[in-house]
Amino acid sequence: MNHARTIDSISGALPVSTGSRRCDILLLPCAGPQGTGEGSDFLLQFLRDRLEPECRVFMPDMPDPEQPHYKPWKKTFERILRDQGDNSLFIVGHSLGASVALKYLSEKPPVKSVAGLFLIGAVYWGLENWNVGEYIFERNFQRHLRYIPNIFFYHSKDDTVVPVSHLWHFAVTLPDASIRQFEREGHLYVNGIPKLIDDIKSVAKW
Fold first, then answer.
1. Is residue 132 within 8 Å of 162, Cβ to Cβ?
2. Which helix H or strand E contains 94, and what residues bound it?
3. Which residues does 65 contact at the CB level (< 8 Å), separation at least 6?
4. Which of 17, 49, 59, 99 has CB atoms 3.0–4.6 Å from 27's, for a disulfide?
């Protein structure tokens, strides 16, 4: 299986999907280096190993990932959603990617419907020591996410990058979301998240 990235790093354009697939899975990565064995690469390979070829799994090269800013990431995300095809779309966000997806989708519902939103190690911006204005959610942002039928959060107690306390802020703010807490998976999930696969298949009904 060819695991080369399936998105153009310059234009951000998606390739033409070949064959009949059940769904498309967009992985929005964490901040930081994204080479082999770095950043969200472990999750990318895990998703591909478990879900391709039934689903197309792709992860964009986000702008300046080691010094990221919301607006460039938002533009890239928006372009991908605009160019998305007809397959059911599942969005998996990791760390900063999860926060960007959540912020954007709560402020501007995309033309393409989102079948499921799966957020791993997400940051609840605005908390003490996490008060970075460009990433902070709008007031009552949860009200604008009701059009997404399935929202899941995943977080590990031993995450040393984003404390697990962020998960419980999301649990209070989005009481209808499904909450998955782990004991010793860290922040990068080097062994993948089997429960994530179960949840995607449950939502996709296959």
1. no
2. strand 88-94
3. 29, 31, 32, 33, 34, 39
4. 59
Type of residue found at 181: Q
Measured CA distances, 11 to 62, 162, 189 (Å):
11, 31, 29
DSSP character at residue 121: S
User: How far apart are the C-alpha atoms of 80 and 74, rounded to whole Å?
Assistant: 10
Torsion-angle region of residue 102: left (phi > 0), alpha (psi -120 to 50) or beta?
Answer: alpha
What's at 183, amino acid-wise? E
Among 66, 72, 58, 57, which residue's Cα sits nearest to residue 30? 66
CATH architecture of structural domain 23-204: 3-Layer(aba) Sandwich (3.40)
- Cβ neighbours for 84, distance < 8 A, ≥ 6 positions apart: 14, 24, 26, 112
Helix/strand/coil (H/E/C) assignment for every residue in 169-193: HHHHHCCCCEEEEECCCCCCCCCCC
**Helix extents (H) in the chain:** 41-51, 70-83, 96-107, 165-173, 194-204
User: pLDDT tens digit string along 90-146?
Assistant: 999 999 999 999 999 999 877 678 999 999 999 999 999 999 999 999 999 999 898
The pTM of the full predicted model, rounded to 2 decimals, is: 0.89
